[in-house]
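Q: I'm building a small set of examples for a reading group on sequence design. Run inverse folding on the following structure and report the sequence directly after it, with nothing in between.
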């Protein structure tokens, strides 16, 4: 086969898989950030503002899905949930599984960042007449956001990389599609063209993840320099 015989159809196939990877990553990241920030803020509510059973449920959610490997969470959602009456297509099962893991980790980062602010600042703001919302808005969150963004961005990079695990429950994302193409050419022509094809997969993840890594480093450096000043 001359290069043009396999490159064009391969690019089309891998691009289709890359599109599913992007969709899966965007959906999982959006849900993880929204749910993780919301639940993390709820856990930081003072005693008495959040019902004890709700706090227990949130803590159980946090500990369970942070402790489970991502692949186990995917298998539970895809294979176990149908027996409980929740039938999901493989793509949405992957979104739910990745979002459960991602939101639990974002939740812990948010909670840790807020609780890392010295309590004396909250007490001083309360003494000046600020309520909990005012303390959170004007005192805690401005400092916590600077601390939480770099680890959250790094978590999102891990989450995007974990989309490759979705192939194990039937999602034909970029890695799975690339494997299928390599196997097809290996059987049909004896040459799978694995190096350029998987090199393209590496490039896809590099283009998605590297800018996020640079962003996390830049924000962290800015936060460090601001803290020194």
């Amino acid at each position: 086969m001359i290069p043009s015989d396999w490159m064009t159809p391969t690019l089309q196939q891998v691009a289709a898989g890359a599109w599913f990877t992007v969709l899966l990553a965007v959906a999982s990241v959006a849900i993880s950030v929204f749910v993780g920030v919301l639940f993390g803020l709820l856990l930081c509510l003072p005693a008495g503002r959040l019902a004890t059973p709700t706090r227990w449920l949130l803590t159980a959610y946090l500990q369970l899905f942070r402790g489970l490997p991502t692949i186990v969470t995917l298998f539970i959602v895809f294979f176990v949930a149908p027996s409980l009456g929740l039938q999901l297509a493989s793509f949405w099962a992957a979104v739910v599984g990745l979002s459960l893991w991602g939101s639990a980790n974002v939740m812990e980062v948010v909670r840790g960042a807020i609780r890392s602010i010295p309590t004396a600042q909250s007490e001083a703001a309360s003494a000046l007449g600020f309520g909990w919302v005012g303390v959170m808005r004007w005192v805690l969150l401005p400092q916590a956001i600077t601390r939480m963004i770099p680890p959250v961005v790094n978590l999102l990079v891990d989450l995007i990389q974990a989309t490759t695990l979705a192939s194990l429950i039937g999602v034909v994302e970029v890695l799975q599609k690339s494997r299928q193409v390599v196997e097809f050419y290996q059987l049909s022509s004896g040459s799978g063209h694995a190096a350029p094809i998987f090199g393209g997969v590496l490039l896809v993840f590099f283009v998605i993840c590297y800018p996020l890594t640079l962003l996390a480093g830049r924000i962290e450096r800015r936060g460090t320099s601001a803290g020194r000043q």
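Residues 3-43 form the longest helix (41 residues).
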